[in-house]
Amino acid sequence: MLKFIHSGPFAALFECGFRPFFLLTAATAVIAVAAWVGFLTLGMPLPLTPNGPVVWHTHEMLAGFAMASIAGFVLTAIPEFTSTRMIERHHVFILLILWITGRVAFAIPIVPAGTIVAMIADLGLLGMLAAIIAPRLWRDANRRHLSFLWILLAVIVATGGFYFDTLTGTYPMRWLLVITGLMMALIVIAMSRISMRIVNTALSQVGETGTAYLARPPRHNLAIFCILLYTLAEFVALQHPVSGWIALAAAAALFNLTNDWHIGRALLQRWAFMLYLVYWFMALGYAVIGVAILMETAWASAGRHLLLVGALGLAVFAVMNIAGRIHAGIEPDKRLWVPIAATLIAGAAVLRAMMNFDQIEASLAIVAASACWITAFSLHLIFHWRILIRPRTDGQPGCAGIASDA
Description:
Elements: H1 2-7, H2 18-42, H3 53-82, H4 89-107, H5 113-139, H6 146-167, H7 173-205, H8 217-236, H9 241-257, H10 270-295, H11 300-326, H12 337-356, H13 362-389
Helix pairs in contact: 2-3, 2-13, 3-4, 3-5, 3-7, 3-11, 4-5, 5-6, 6-7, 7-8, 7-10, 7-11, 8-9, 9-10, 10-11, 11-12, 11-13, 12-13
C-alpha cells in the first residue's frame, strides 16, 4: 500500500489533499445530481436509504459533495495558514477510503447495517480531519484560524445527531439543516482569507495600486454570528416567527458584508466577482427563508437552494479552480469556459428557486437547473482531471504554491 501511494501510477493524487478530494467533489456533483433528476423525471431508482429520497439527496450533497470539497480545502489550506508541513500521504489515503466507504455504505439497502458503517466512516473522516488540523491551529502563534476547528467539531456533533435520529427512527432532516448553516458559516470564514489575495490581485490587475481591500472582521464576524444564531433558532423552532426575523438579520449582515467588496472595476474581474456572488446568493437565500417563515409561504425551499446551489456551488467551484490550480503549480484558468460554468451554476440556483415561486413549471425547472449544474461541473472535470492525477511540472513540492510566488 505504501508503494501505491508513494510511487504507484496514481501517486500524484496523494501529493496534496485537494487532489483526490476535489476530483471527487466534481464527480459527485455530476453523478449525484444526475441520479436525482433521473429519479424525479424518469422514475429511475435511488439507493434505498432510510427516510426516503429527499434525505438521501440532501445528505449526499452535504456529506458527499460539500464534505469532499471541505476535506480538500482544509488539508491544503490549514498547513499554508499555519506555516506547517503538508499533510502526509497516508493520512490523505485513509481519509479518502473513509469518504468512499461512507458514500457506498449509505447507499446499501441494508438497514441498519449500511447506516452504521456509513456513520462510522463519516464520523471517522470528520474526527480524523479534526485530529490532523487541531494541533496545527492551536500551536499557531495568534490562533487566528481556530474557527475552522470549531465549525468542524460542530459538524461532527450534527453528523452524529443525524445518524442517531436515523437509527432510532426519527426523521433526521433537522440535522441536515444544521449542517447547511455550519457550511454557510464556514464559507464566510474561508472567504475572508481567500478574498484578501483574490481581490487585491484584481485591484493590481486594473491598476488600482492606491486601493487595498480588507476583509473587515466586524462585518464577517457579525455575518457568522447571525448565520449560526439562525441555525440554532431553526433547530429549536423551525417555523417560529423569531427564526424568520433572525434569517432576515443574517441576510442584512451578509448584504452589509458585501460593502467591503465595492472597490470599483476590479470587482468585475472573474474571480473577485464570482466570490462576490457567493455572498449575494447567501444573503438572498436567508432573505427568502425569512420572508417565507413570516408570510407562511412555501418559499423556504427556494431559499435553501439559493444557499446550497448558488452560494455553496459557486464557492466550491471557485475554490477548486483557484486553490486547486495554484497548489498544482498552475495559474488560475483564464479561458472562457470558467465564466460560462460559473454562470451555469448561478443559473441552476435561480431556476431551482423560481420553481418554488411558481414562476416556472416544476419538471422543467428541475431538468434545466440540473442540466446547468451537471454541465458546469462536467466542464471542471474535463479541464482538471489530468492536472489532479499528474505530478507537478514546476519542480515545487506537494502543496506549494506557484513557483513565481514562492
